[in-house]
Every structure is written in structure tokens, then in C-alpha cells.
Specification:
The protein is α/β, with parallel strands linked by helices and 231 residues long. The strands form 2 sheets. Strands 1, 2, 3, 4, 8, 9, 10 and 11 form an 8-stranded mixed sheet that branches. It has a 3-stranded antiparallel sheet with strand order 5-7-6.
Length: 231
């Protein structure tokens, strides 16, 4: 079962306007850079993007925002991106902010087929408006719904032709759980190997979750914020 695509361009050709896409990464680490660049070049629009953060102005999801390809964002942190701020404040972008732990659990619930869960996070705040609440063991909780997507773009360190994936350090934060919660998961990898070259004990995302895989290239190593200390 060979799931390998020749390029990111082939992958994004599957994405229609108006699609909902989960995009892995944490800060500027573990971003599916090739897929994002190809999607930007193709001009696919009216997207709903589910991602921990919105990248920066000229990198990651920031380039999709700059090109006005994103209609709605579901995220936990949206600092570091002036274009995101401008569109949001001007009412040009629909935004749903989610506490980070709740965000991760909503995606996990989507992948696990869980219909919802109660959490104390957000009770008594705007987060809880319009949602069912319940007292559990004396504490107030809010019912949160799972998150699903049409597609997931994930970035892995190694992958094989059947879609088995391993991750490196911070890239493991959101990529693995997003791979389980989309109808079609497309993975780009730093290193593409033959089936059997990845120790089964090291597989984080089994190939059953991955529909397509491709070898990435030209990755950038970005520092989100540099702090210098005077001697």
C-alpha cells in the first residue's frame, strides 16, 4: 500500500475551497511548511484553519492569512502576527479562541469518536456562553464538543510509504492528535524510508490514520523571539 505523493502540489490539489484543515505545529516548530506553501501558491480560499497558533506574518499560516485565504480560525494563541490582528479587529476574520488544554482534548475527542466532555476550564467566562454546564464532584464544568476536519496537514520527522510516522521533540505536541481527527490526513516528512525501517515500538502515528505522505524539502529553522543579554 504505497501512499507516497510526488509533491506538495499534488497533495493540495485535493483541497477544495471552503475546506476545514487542521495544521500541526507548536509556535514555529513542526509546521507542515511545504503543504502550507503549496496551498498558498494554489490560491485555495475560504478555509477554516484549526491550529494552535497563527504563525507569523511571513511564515506558516501567516502567509495564508496575508493572501486572505483563511475565512475562520480556531486557535489557542494568536500573538506575533500583525496581519491576523488587523483582520480580526476589522471584522474580516472569524476567530474562535480555545484554552490550549481544551483545544488539545477537543481534537483528541474528535479522533477517538467521543461525543463531548466536561471540563472546569472556562466556567464563568465567555468560553462557557451558550454551553451546557454541570456540577461534578462539587466543581462547575463546561461541556465541550469535539473538533473534526476535512483534512489534516501534519509534519513528522520520519515516515514510511505506508504512512507510519515518528516525530521529533516539540513537533509531537499537536501533529499526532490532529492526524487522528481528520477525514483525510496528509503527512510531510523530513525523511521518507521504506516500510520496515521504522521500529514498530517507535511509531507514534500508525499508517492507518494517514491517507497520503510526501517528502518535504527546504525547511526553515526559525526563532520565534530572540532575547539577547548584555554582559
Amino acid at each position: 500500500m504505497n501512499k507516497v505523493l510526488a509533491s506538495a502540489d499534488d497533495a493540495v490539489g485535493l483541497i477544495p475551497d471552503g475546506a476545514t484543515i487542521m495544521m500541526g505545529g507548536f509556535g514555529l516548530c513542526g509546521l507542515p511548511e511545504n503543504l502550507i506553501r503549496a496551498l498558498n501558491a494554489r490560491g485555495t480560499k475560504d478555509l477554516t484553519v484549526i491550529s494552535n497558533n497563527a504563525g507569523v506574518d511571513d511564515f506558516g499560516i501567516g502567509i495564508l492569512l496575508r493572501a486572505r485565504q483563511v475565512r475562520r480560525m480556531i486557535a489557542t494563541y494568536v500573538g506575533e502576527n500583525k496581519e491576523f490582528e488587523r483582520q480580526f479587529l476589522n471584522g474580516e476574520l472569524d476567530v474562535e479562541l480555545v484554552p490550549q488544554g481544551t483545544f488539545a482534548e477537543r481534537i483528541r475527542a474528535g479522533g477517538a469518536g467521543v461525543g463531548g466532555f466536561f471540563t472546569p476550564t472556562g466556567y464563568g467566562t465567555m468560553i462557557a456562553e451558550g454551553k451546557e454546564t454541570r456540577v461534578i464532584e462539587g466543581a462547575h464544568h463546561v461541556l465541550e464538543a469535539p473538533l473534526h476536519a476535512d483534512f489534516a496537514f501534519v509534519r513528522a520527522h520520519r515516515g514510511d510509504a505506508t504512512g507510519n510516522l515518528t516525530y521529533r521533540r516539540t513537533a509531537r505536541n499537536f501533529n499526532p492528535v490532529m492526524a487522528t481527527a481528520a477525514r483525510i490526513t496528509i503527512a510531510e516528512v523530513d525523511e521518507l524510508v521504506r516500510p520496515g525501517e521504522i521500529d514498530p515500538d517507535h511509531v507514534v502515528t500508525p499508517g492507518i490514520y494517514v491517507r497520503h505522505i510526501l517528502k518535504g524539502a527546504a525547511y526553515e529553522t526559525r526563532i520565534e523571539r530572540r532575547t539577547a543579554r548584555r554582559d
